[in-house]
């Protein structure tokens, strides 16, 4: 069973007509062998990525020069999600896996159904606002008591009930397998594949190499506690883990935006935020269609070209990440410039009125759709392989 | 609203109220601006500045002069090069300047007088974001200084249209044992100081 | 405090309170919270001393919302000059480069904070706000060359330092850690001849070179050029410049312990790499560039910072001991209201900028014995040359300069003319011609004066094409020349010229020597040759006019120079109390417990951007101040490992924390 200590808004009657894309979930049991562990970690990688496009969409639909507290709050969370994704890739590499990123199976498409949850919660690409914030609260909802499958309190046929439970399950599997096989037999990955702090920056905390049980458990703490908080407080563990400023966990940062009020130093999940008011202007956004697809934009038009271009650069980002996770960690240097290119392309789309006159009349704007196909990935891989991209100083590496 | 424990905050109004100039007026302004700037309407909308610039232009020259400018541009077949009236030509310059730099420029002194403007003829930046949305940076595939940063090391790549050049790899070795000559210099330095 | 440091919350580090006008006794008072003052406070606070830092300007920049306000002010500024992001403050005015205007027939007019009465204008500004002028520095951190410390002995001009490169080398390394320097020590050693300890690497790998650097290097590297027909050839080489800017950390640093870049002050997880905003001067949006706020965030709680506190006088007793300072506290920078207070300490450290330090000594009538206070004002006069390359070079990208040509900094030619360093400028004609704004106005037919007749102007696709083609090929070179110490270049005070709190405004008398002008002529000759090698179209023009206050004619040629913002030399250090203001610890000869730190102490400035050297000097002085304080407290001192002492009044035992990079008790000088 799950007992959410924090009241989360009930799933709202969906305004979405589209069928929700479904993320494939691993079987409901603790991973029993290294092969299953790798399957679970790949699923975790997919899950971490799933949340990033909705956050980016909320951030970049804010009108320029407005809503700075909201911008920085979402930005901080996005950066931590990117750190989580990288740490999960390090975990997967550490146990001899090969992260899969540049594949149509990795990108579910939106709107998707929130995995590892019994509720039918849609994860859509929405402009910043109440609906988006409610979605984020569902994603980051703290789950304090859900035990892994096999625990006496959990029925065998119950199925996944929360993301926290999913991670606790992987962690349990990892610890058990280390006990059964020994560290050396489990952590067989190539240390040369690990992403280190020299490759990755501006993240919520510092990325670190995973090589044994202890570093793996630290990685789990970061991934789960940044999002949902340290047991029954509103804070994450960055101050403990990285010597950084104490930050409320993601859930509470989004709750601050929704309630337009900050958590104060003595607030708890039960008290809610009672700190200073937070300036949020829900009108200062570009409203978008949460079900937009590039194909909805007239072929040949400037908006369609921009939307296609966005997806192409997004595909390039996935290829860069996969190269970094599977071949050369130094390839990650191209990730931030590519992300920043995506930011510019996305902002340009959101500021253009929707080309469909009816949607335009409703005040909707064009949007980035984060659509990936294998054909697109193949084409982008071809472009990346061509030497035309320049020699590229190794930036000191 | 209650300051806390609110589980259902006020829902988003169906749509935000549109900014003061009406959508069709902004569209018309963007069409004219395409002629002035050489950027297409997607690029102009992409700045997010169209409504602000229309407001700025109307406020600076007044609706009548602005209408006359539109009329004369129309009569010139939409080609700003064929605008002959100095007032309309100066308005064309100002609007193009605004799009390119985010700055409304000084009008010609004669035009300022002819319009009977009751405001200082001084240049100003329409808003902080207007500077960062200036079109001038796009003309050479750049980004505004201080905004839209392209990422670590991107300045090493050839810009579009530039040939690759040979690049000496960074040696990246730690400092080696100093040569005897350098040690000699250091010695001299020490001696010189204590002398 | 600091239980809740959120974006928008309280800044971290040190103790910030309402002015503690009731607690007036400290171990040390530091005047000025810029680079030097911040470093001195950091070291002394870490060693257990109670430090009061008085900053004349505001602390608005300390928080992230304050930083964002500065960003917006910069975006909206008509002229993006170094002080453009920072709000004017009538209570603690700052000079501005816009205070100078050239006259149509030559000459200049100055308004604003400085009163100028020299033959040529002193064209540099500074910033009076928490963090100081380093808030708008470019962030280049080249070391000075060993021969720069002995120009009189070696080349027969200027003044010598009472210490040498070898004395400062360890402090250079300490400063490189504190500021977080990215560079290539091996390249600096090979190309410039800088001595480093064997195996040394900078904290971070060098900042990637710009594409423009590579274009220039491809044509210049290895080519000999002559400054004049009878001079020997100098071989050109493009060399990467060290920066206090976050790059990729070098895992080999510090014996393999590596380095963690310090991000933005006020916003967590930001600024850990330079992302190429291309606005280092006047403001780094992500704070990847070092600024003193980063160090202040690590101040010990024994350091108290009071902003909006303008020190008006240093107080001394009849024996020459400094007792403390008198300062004016104001609340609203816009209101002509202040209250006057005094604060007392065992040691007073002036760290308020070369010109402000000199002003304070002059007003307080202290350190007068040598007659040198205010004299020997120096800068790096800058000659700009600019042109168009044959193909796009990607201007306005990356840090303002990533490489330079170092071949003219050293050698026997210094006997005849000023040496210079050439910076390859990555930002097109932004400095020489206010591009790209001026390019847009020119093509649209909009002249600088609204009364002038207007051109027809170019519109539409043609406008776009011509701008892209022209701006995309812009590049410029910046020649930074060494100015030698000259007694006639000086800061004085005159009771007739005062600011709003009644403090005297600096009166500046400034000129360039003939050897400096010969250096400019040589620089222009080298530029001509370089433009030829690059097959570039030279667009350099010098002449009188409103935007050329630094215009002059020399041997039949026109020149225009600019200031580099490197004010130095107003309380020069030396070997003798008869000829210099401070000793090699930057301690006033006449006042054993009064220090004046900063570029003002430098007897020569070489051709290196001076901040790194200034930081090294500040760290070196901190060691002596610590020893002085320990000495003062000796009667009740309990000696522990690295020094430290107890304070009889408070009875607390400071926990000494000797820095691994300082050599606390090593006297290099006799």
UniProtKB/TrEMBL annotation, chain A:
Signal peptide: none annotated. It comes from Streptomyces albireticuli. This is Iminophenyl-pyruvate dimer synthase domain-containing protein. It comes from the Bacteria. Residues 41-258 form the Iminophenyl-pyruvate dimer synthase domain.
UniProtKB/TrEMBL annotation, chain C:
Signal peptide: none annotated. It holds the Pfam family GMC_oxred_N. InterPro entries: FAD/NAD-bd_sf, GMC_OxRdtase_N, GMC_OxRtase_C, P2Ox-like. The keyword Ligase does not apply. The keyword Secreted does not apply. Its cofactor is FAD. GO terms for molecular function: flavin adenine dinucleotide binding; oxidoreductase activity, acting on CH-OH group of donors. Residues 298-382 form the Glucose-methanol-choline oxidoreductase N-terminal domain. Residues 1-21, 630-670 are annotated as: Disordered. Transmembrane segments: none annotated. Keywords: FAD, Flavoprotein, Oxidoreductase. Residues 487-618 form the Glucose-methanol-choline oxidoreductase C-terminal domain. It comes from the Bacteria. Belongs to the GMC oxidoreductase family. This is Glucose-methanol-choline oxidoreductase. It comes from Streptomyces albireticuli.
């Amino acid at each position: 069973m799950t007992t959410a200590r924090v009241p989360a808004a009930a799933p709202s009657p969906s305004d979405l007509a589209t069928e929700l894309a479904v993320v494939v979930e691993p079987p409901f049991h603790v991973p029993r062998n290294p092969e299953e562990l790798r399957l679970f970690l790949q699923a975790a990688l997919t899950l971490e990525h799933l949340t990033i496009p909705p956050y980016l969409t909320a951030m970049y639909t804010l009108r320029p020069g407005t809503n700075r507290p909201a911008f920085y709050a979402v930005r901080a969370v996005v950066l931590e999600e990117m750190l989580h994704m990288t740490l999960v890739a390090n975990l997967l590499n550490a146990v001899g896996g090969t992260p899969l990123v540049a594949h149509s199976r990795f990108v579910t498409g939106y709107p998707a159904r929130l995995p590892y949850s019994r509720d039918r919660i849609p994860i859509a690409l929405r402009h910043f606002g109440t609906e988006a914030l409610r979605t984020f609260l569902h994603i980051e909802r703290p789950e304090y008591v859900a035990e892994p499958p096999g625990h006496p309190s959990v029925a065998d046929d119950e199925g996944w009930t929360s993301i926290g439970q999913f991670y606790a399950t992987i962690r349990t599997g990892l610890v058990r397998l280390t006990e059964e096989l020994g560290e050396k037999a489990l952590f067989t990955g190539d240390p040369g594949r690990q992403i280190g702090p020299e490759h990755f920056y501006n993240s919520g905390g510092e990325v670190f190499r995973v090589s044994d049980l202890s570093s793996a458990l630290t990685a789990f703490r970061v991934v789960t506690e940044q999002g949902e908080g340290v047991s029954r407080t509103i804070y994450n563990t960055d101050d403990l883990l990285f010597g950084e400023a104490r930050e409320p966990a993601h859930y509470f940062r989004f709750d601050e935006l929704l309630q337009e009020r900050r958590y104060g130093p003595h607030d708890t999940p039960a008290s809610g935020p009672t700190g200073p008011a937070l300036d949020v202007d829900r009108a200062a956004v570009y409203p978008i269609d949460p079900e937009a697809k590039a194909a909805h934009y007239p072929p040949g038009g400037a908006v369609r070209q921009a939307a296609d271009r966005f997806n192409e650069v997004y595909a390039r980002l996935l290829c860069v990440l996969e190269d970094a996770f599977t071949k050369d960690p130094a390839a990650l240097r191209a990730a931030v410039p590519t992300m920043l290119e995506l930011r510019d392309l996305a902002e340009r789309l959101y500021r253009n009125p929707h080309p469909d006159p009816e949607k335009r009349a409703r005040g909707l704007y064009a949007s980035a759709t984060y659509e990936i196909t294998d054909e697109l990935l193949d084409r982008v891989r071809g472009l990346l392989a061509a030497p035309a991209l320049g020699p590229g100083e190794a930036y000191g590496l | 609203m209650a300051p806390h424990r609110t589980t259902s905050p006020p829902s988003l109004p169906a749509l935000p109220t549109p900014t003061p100039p009406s959508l069709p007026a902004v569209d018309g302004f963007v069409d004219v601006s395409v002629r002035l700037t050489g950027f297409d309407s997607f690029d102009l909308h992409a700045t997010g500045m169209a409504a602000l610039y229309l407001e700025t232009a109307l406020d600076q020259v007044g609706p009548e002069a602005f209408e006359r400018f539109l009329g004369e541009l129309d009569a010139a077949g939409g080609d700003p090069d064929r605008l002959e009236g100095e007032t309309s030509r100066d308005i064309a310059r100002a609007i193009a300047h605004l799009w390119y730099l985010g700055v409304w420029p000084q009008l010609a002194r004669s035009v300022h007088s002819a319009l009977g403007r009751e405001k200082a003829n001084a240049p100003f930046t329409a808003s902080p974001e207007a500077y960062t949305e200036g079109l001038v940076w796009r003309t050479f595939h750049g980004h505004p200084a201080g905004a839209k940063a392209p990422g670590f090391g991107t300045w090493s790549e050839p810009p579009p249209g530039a040939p690759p050049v040979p690049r000496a790899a960074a040696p990246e070795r730690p400092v080696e044992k100093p040569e005897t000559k350098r040690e000699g210099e250091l010695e001299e330095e020490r001696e010189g100081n204590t002398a | 405090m600091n239980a809740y440091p959120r974006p928008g919350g309280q800044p971290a580090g040190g103790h910030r309170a309402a002015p503690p006008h009731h607690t007036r006794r400290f171990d040390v008072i530091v005047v000025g919270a810029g680079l030097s003052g911040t470093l001195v406070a950091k070291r002394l606070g870490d060693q257990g001393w109670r430090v009061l830092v008085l900053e004349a300007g505001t602390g608005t920049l300390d928080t992230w919302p304050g930083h964002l306000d500065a960003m917006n002010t910069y975006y909206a500024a008509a002229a993006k000059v170094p002080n453009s992001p920072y709000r004017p403050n009538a209570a603690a005015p700052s000079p501005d480069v816009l205070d100078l205007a050239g006259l149509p027939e030559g000459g200049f007019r100055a308004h604003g904070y400085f009163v100028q009465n020299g033959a040529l204008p002193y064209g540099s500004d500074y910033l009076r706000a928490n963090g100081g002028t380093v808030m708008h520095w470019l962030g280049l951190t080249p070391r000075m060359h060993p021969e720069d410390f002995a120009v009189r002995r070696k080349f027969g001009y200027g003044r010598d330092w009472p210490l040498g490169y070898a004395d400062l080398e360890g402090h250079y390394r300490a400063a490189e850690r504190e500021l977080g320097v990215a560079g290539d020590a091996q390249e600096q050693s090979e190309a410039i001849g800088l001595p480093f300890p064997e195996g040394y690497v900078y904290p971070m790998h060098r900042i990637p070179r710009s594409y423009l650097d590579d274009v220039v290097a491809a044509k210049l590297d290895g080519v000999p050029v002559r400054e004049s027909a009878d001079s020997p050839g100098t071989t050109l080489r493009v060399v990467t410049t060290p920066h206090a800017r976050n790059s990729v950390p070098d895992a080999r640093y510090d014996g393999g312990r590596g380095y963690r870049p310090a991000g933005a002050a006020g916003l967590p997880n930001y600024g850990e790499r330079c992302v190429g905003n291309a606005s280092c001067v006047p403001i780094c949006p992500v704070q990847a560039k070092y600024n003193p706020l980063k160090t202040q965030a690590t101040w010990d709680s024994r350091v108290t910072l009071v902003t909006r506190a303008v020190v008006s006088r240093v107080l001394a007793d009849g024996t020459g001991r400094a007792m403390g300072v008198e300062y004016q506290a104001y609340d609203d920078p816009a209101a002509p209201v202040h209250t006057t207070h005094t604060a007392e300490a065992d040691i007073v450290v002036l760290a308020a900028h070369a010109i402000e330090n000199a002003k304070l000594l002059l007003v307080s009538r202290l350190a007068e014995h040598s007659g040198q206070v205010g004299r020997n004002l120096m800068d790096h006069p800058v000659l700009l040359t600019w042109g168009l390359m044959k193909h796009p070079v990607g201007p306005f990208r990356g840090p303002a300069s990533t490489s330079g040509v170092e071949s003219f900094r050293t050698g026997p030619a210094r006997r005849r003319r000023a040496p210079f360093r050439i910076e390859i400028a990555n930002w097109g004609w932004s400095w020489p011609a206010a591009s790209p704004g001026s390019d847009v106005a020119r093509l649209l037919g909009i002249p600088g004066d609204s009364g002038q007749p207007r051109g027809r102007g170019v519109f539409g696709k043609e406008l776009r094409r011509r701008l892209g083609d022209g701006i995309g090929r812009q590049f410029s070179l910046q020649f930074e020349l060494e100015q030698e110490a000259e007694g006639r270049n000086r800061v004085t005070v005159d009771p007739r010229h005062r600011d709003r709190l009644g403090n005297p405004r600096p009166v500046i008398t400034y000129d360039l020597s003939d050897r400096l002008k010969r250096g400019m002529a040589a620089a222009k000759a080298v530029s001509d040759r370089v433009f030829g090698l690059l097959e570039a179209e030279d667009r350099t023009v010098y002449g009188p006019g409103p935007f050329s206050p630094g215009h002059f004619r020399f041997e039949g040629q026109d020149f225009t120079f600019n200031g580099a913002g490197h004010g130095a030399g107003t309380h020069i250090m030396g070997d003798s109390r008869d000829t210099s203001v401070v000793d090699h610890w930057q301690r006033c000869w006449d006042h054993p417990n009064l220090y004046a730190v900063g570029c003002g102490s430098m007897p020569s400035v070489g051709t290196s951007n001076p901040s790194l050297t200034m930081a090294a000097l500040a760290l070196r002085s901190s060691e002596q101040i610590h020893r002085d304080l320990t000495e003062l407290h000796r009667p009740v001192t309990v000696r522990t490992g690295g020094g430290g002492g107890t304070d009889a009044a408070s009875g607390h035992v400071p926990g000494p924390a000797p820095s691994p990079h300082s050599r606390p008790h090593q006297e290099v000088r006799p």
